[in-house]
What we know:
By secondary structure, the protein is of the alpha/beta class. It contains 14 helices and twelve strands. It has helices at 27-35, 85-96, 108-115, 121-132, 136-146, 149-173, 187-202, 207-212, 226-234, 278-293, 338-352, 363-377, 385-402, 409-416; strands spanning 4-8, 15-23, 45-50, 56-65, 76-83, 101-103, 214-219, 252-258, 261-267, 296-299, 311-314, 328-329. Helix 7 (187-202) packs antiparallel against helix 12 (363-377). The radius of gyration is 29 Å and the shape is flat.
Amino acid sequence: MDETIYALSSGAPPAAIGVIRISGPRAGQALARLCGTLPVERSPRLRTLRDGAGEMLDRALVLWFPGPATATGEDLVELHCHGGRAVVAAVLATLGTIEGLREAEPGEFTRRAFTNGRIDLAEAEGLADLLSAETELQRRGALLAAGGELSRRIEGWRDRLLAFGAAIEAVIDFADEDDVASLPAGFGAELGALAAEIRRVAERPATERLRDGIRVVLAGPPNAGKSSLFNALLADDAAIVTAEAGTTRDVLERPVSIGGVPFVLVDTAGMREEGAGPIEALGIERARREVAAGQIVLWLGDPADRPEGAFLVRSKADLRPSGSSSGLEVSTVTGSGLEELIEWLVARAREVLPPVDRLAFNRRQRDLALAAVSAIEAVDGEGDLLLAAENIRSARRALDALVGRDSTEEMLDALFGRFCIGK
């Protein structure tokens, strides 16, 4: 944290503007080296940037933010340069010659913000999801955590636990006083309400489903039309389609946004019991594993062979008589049934995705929240109050871990490694 870091924080050049950030104790010195003097703090100024030999690098808008009231909690500089490759490269190269400066590692700016208390762990996780969001649902879902709404809810739960713990400690320490001889009326009911509130949030679908996308597995016998449907849903010729049985011999997957919902479409090898060679047999085994793990399975085959829970799709509807009583008839040649299938997929996915207008946990957060619930539910206000006080403390520690008050370096490394270098 005593080092000063720098990196390009905007998109890869060429671009209209290239934003370069500098953070750390030497940020102000670096800015003065580039443009001669420090500008008025927190006010954009147009300055000429020069290298160590005095050669002009660019005319840029510069901003100087003294810490600690900055995004990273330390001295911070932003250089809004022209976004050409040569300009950005020249400015970065000059920064690299300044003593005490080094290029930032992935996520290091955000990690410093966390370390310096500008954001907590729940906000950092939400920010990581927001940066990787590719659909509207992903964006809206990440905003609640990145904006601090989840952290505020957790802090409220923690404050209530502190009050419950204080009430128990008061009875333990001052049991001989008339006004604190017993726990307040309604103590157990209020504690139960808190546990129920935390459990309701924890039992919602995990945010990883929204971030990773719903896996839709297309399965069935050879030549059932799986690859054709896969291509039609992608609006791309990602899978090879031929009349030869067993053309698809491995699992092929592609992410796609349909109706603003993130999906991962999975094309699989045709399932058959006989006639498959060694390579195709491996593909069939992988297909079976995908069917078992798929969140949505579209079965393009005999209804009698349909896996449990799979949705029956009668493909190649242009080649067979219509009027079947089961499944959805689809033709990738005429396009019939595709719109209905897409509507069904979107509706089904929304049932298993976390609600974007309400708080939801990722798996790490859910496990900690449920640990807090278990500790709260173990509190017995009429039993051993020392044990009750320890259960309250255990619940509070679990909530602290939710927002990073008790975090391991390995977990932090994994999280901030998801960020780009300039973030």
